[in-house]
Amino acid sequence: MTKASIEAAQKKFGAVVEEQLKRVEEMKKSGAFIDYAKLSPVIIGICWGDGIGEFISRNAQEVLTHALKEEVKRGKIAFKEIKGLTIENRVKHKKAIPDDILEELKACHIILKGPTTTPQAGDPWPNIESANVAMRRALDLFANVRPVKIPREGVDWCFFRENTEGAYILGSKGFDVGEDLSVDFTVATEQGSERIIRMAFDYARKNNIDRVTVITKSNVIKTTDGRFSRAAKRIAKDYPAIECDEWYIDIMTAKLIDPARRKDFKVMVMPNLYGDILTDEAAQLQGGVGTAGSANIGTRWAMFEAIHGSAPRMVKEGRAQYADPSSMIRACAMLLRHIGYPQKAQDVEMALEVCGQFEKKVTITGRDTGATGGEYTKYILSWVDNPKLKSRWESEVFNVK
Ligand code: IPM
Ligand code: MG
Predict the structure, then answer these.
(1) In this structure, are 240 and 351 located in the same domain?
(2) Which of 107, 169, 194, 284 sits between 20 and 30 A of 24, alpha carbons compared?
(3) How far is the centre of ligand 1, averaged over its atoms, from the C-alpha of 132 (Å)?
(4) Which residues contact 254 (CB under 8 A, 6 or more apart)?
(5) pTM, whole model, 2 decimals?
(6) Rounded mean pLDDT, 42-71
(7) What pLDDT score does 344 carry?
(8) What is the H or E stretch that residue 219 is in?
(9) Per-residue pLDDT, 400
(10) Is the CB of 310 inside a 6 Å radius of any atom of ligand 1?
(11) Cα dist. 185→27, 224, 230, 310 in Å?
């Protein structure tokens, strides 16, 4: 290894530290959460994404416009279409999010975003950064909130995944040193840890949940996870009615598939990468990653999406129209709750459960053996509008045969 390559690495590392300290200063300045009740209109941007994204986002849009038709008429809500967050356009501009698209996103208050393709080395696309990760960072969407429910088993989880730090934030800033060494970074800040942990505790308090589980690997990843764990213990003292326990990510992945124990977990908070992995596992238990939605929340903007990717394989095999829109529709329910329509949100959620877990009159298989996303959306909407929705849902959940 030459002295020059070590010096070059030191310089790059110095730049990374400098940039992160600047981010800490920004976080210290960040203000209170936006109040949607005071905005008129609340502007909701719909971003199609690519792959199956285009298909399932249109299905989700149908549900959202249905739920908000009165508010649109009254001028309280306005929709805006944002085109161009496609892999083709991103590659053309060699940017995770082209500048003009970022401006359009910033002009909205809320974004509903379809899955976007994230290239990796060896793909036909240049290895540009993920649009999700870039958007979370650009709009400082620090909280990734992912609920997962298995009503019949009493499982009601809410995952709070840190969304702007950890192994993700600097994934694209890693570098090779000489021929044989590669370095990536992971980062935890006091401010970044505190704001996600507080959000998890506030959610627990608001929903009368008496336990928050912190997930780390702080026995091995001592510095960054160590900070996250310390911050949690400090913050927990402000919530004396809530028990705070810490679990390591490895045993946690095992406990999620332990039917005897899993329903005891309620609110879980964790650094970025662990949250990425654990929430896919949790979603699979709920019925597949196609069934889970994800909220990305910051103080000024919030973005709602599916937890899964753009499924290029489905598109290649000509099956995109059979993609399950449930994840995006669940994201719509989260969006509705976030901007102050809890009843509308609950109706959409109950309809999703009646259709996907109980009645199953129309089923979706991802192939032509099942319904198309459009047909399935119509099925869900028929339950959203059904006056028997609540009683049907309750009888299924509470009277398990
Ligand atoms: C998710 C996805 C993203 C992530 C990808 C698409 C970059 O897996 O939202 O969980 O890793 O965060
Ligand atoms: Mg993921």
Answers:
(1) no
(2) 107
(3) 7
(4) none
(5) 0.93
(6) 95
(7) 97
(8) none
(9) 55
(10) no
(11) 20, 11, 20, 26
